[in-house]
Amino acid sequence: MKQRKRRMLSGMQPSGRMHLGNLLGALDNWIKYQQDYDAYFFVADWHALSTNYADTSHLRDYIREMLIDWLSAGIDPEKCTLFIQSRVPEHAVLYLLLSMITPVPWLERNPTYKEQMEELRDRDLTTYGFLGYPVLQSADILIYKADVVPVGVDQLPHLELTRELARRFSNLYKAVFPEPQPLLTEVPKLLGTDGRKMSKSYNNAIYLSDPEKDVREKLRTMVTDPARVRRTDRGNPDICPVFSYHKIFSEIGVIDRVNTECRTAEIGCIDCKKWVADRMVRRLEPIWTERQKWTKHPKKVEAVVTEGSEKAGKAARQTLEEVREAMKI
After folding, report:
1. Residue 239 CA: distances (Å) to CA of 137, 188, 198
2. Can you count the helices (H) and strands (E) in the chain?
3. Residue 304 lies in a domain
4. How confident is the model at residue 225 (pLDDT cuts 50, 70, 90)?
5. In degrees, to the nearest 5, what angle opens at C-alpha 137 toward C-alphas 132 and 141?
6. Where residue 16 falls among pLDDT bands split at 50, 70, 90?
7. Per DSSP, what are the bridge partners of residue 9?
8. At what angle do helices 128-142 and 156-172 cross, to 10 degrees?
9. Cα(199)–Cα(196) distance, integer angstroms
10. For residue range 68-93, what is the model confidence (pLDDT) as tens digits?
């Protein structure tokens, strides 16, 4: 008999256009894994409400643009299940049931909860939804009986909560859920054009949908070694954000040349930036080509997520029936 593929699940909040950090940190891994796993990838639109509930005016646009970015980057609906969270209401039902057995201290110790309460002081996060969003995240994973979840090291506490809830449910009722295992993914640290972490909120991102001229202009004005003021000054690639791009996008020969000749002032920042811009454009060109196709045919995008949401809903309903039976409700 043919052995079934292990099931993978991952999602992303629709907060706007995808940038290079999203491509390298998540999408590239999804594309790599979609062939080898029974992969489910979803738009976490309910999760977006946990911190942005006060303004939902752009949510539908963000969902559409993010889906186009995913498909353009190489997410293949023939190889994976692509869906929107809110179109599968079973997520919410399991979230409610799991919330009944989740101790509040498990949520209050969540490191992301504490960090975002400190960082996002411009909005009121003292809501039940924000405190409980890790339980919704657990429901997202458990409703599909996911075997693996691709995560970075910083996301391990979230997955451990899911595993704890799976065990608690088994102890209280019956073993329904497998304990999902982390698939640790290497997330390259990608700096923005101002030297800080690339982020939409910092206005320092290079987007997958940026035209070539914008990509080149953003790189042309990108910060470099602050001590290198004149062309004749020697630079230090170790602290230069542009060199960090070379290490990701350029060939080894170019990386070695920049690493050497920047330190001796044999090359200037203009040449250095042009070389990495050429490599980055080459990386993005196939995405731009695909993006034009999907943008012209929004009905095809809708057809993909409609089919994917129906397939996801079928799997979710099967799990929820087992949950109801286990809980005798």
Report:
1. 37, 16, 16
2. 14, 5
3. yes
4. very high
5. 145
6. confident
7. 40
8. 70
9. 8
10. 999 999 999 999 999 999 999 999 99
Spatial CA neighbour of 96 closest among 57, 61, 143, 60: 143
The model carries a pTM of 0.93
Whether residue 145 is predicted with pLDDT greater than 60 in this model: the reply is yes
48 and 278 in contact (C-beta within 8 Å)?
A: no
First to last CA, the chain: 36
* Local confidence band at 117 (pLDDT 50, 70, 90 cut-offs): confident
Domain with 261 in it: what CATH number?
1.10.240.10
Domain shared by 66 and 160, yes or no: yes
Q: Quick check: 329 and 172 in contact, CB under 8 A?
A: no
Output the six-digit token pair for 329.
């409700």
Q: Model confidence at 2, in pLDDT bands (50, 70, 90)?
A: low
Which residue's structure tokens are 């889906």?
67
Q: Name 38's bridge partners.
A: 7
Contact indicator for 107, 135 with CB cutoff of 8 Å: yes
- Coil, helix or strand for 178? coil
Amino acid at 226: P
pLDDT digits (tens, 9 = 90+) for 257-309: 999 999 999 999 999 999 999 999 999 999 999 999 999 999 999 999 999 99
CATH code of the domain covering residue 152: 3.40.50.620
Of 199, 195, 193, 249, the closest CA to residue 218 belongs to: 193
| Cα 281 from Cα 210, distance rounded (Å) | 10
Q: Which domain holds residue 171?
A: 7-190+298-327
| Cβ atoms of residues 242 and 270 within 8 Å | no
Beta partners for 42?
A: 11, 83
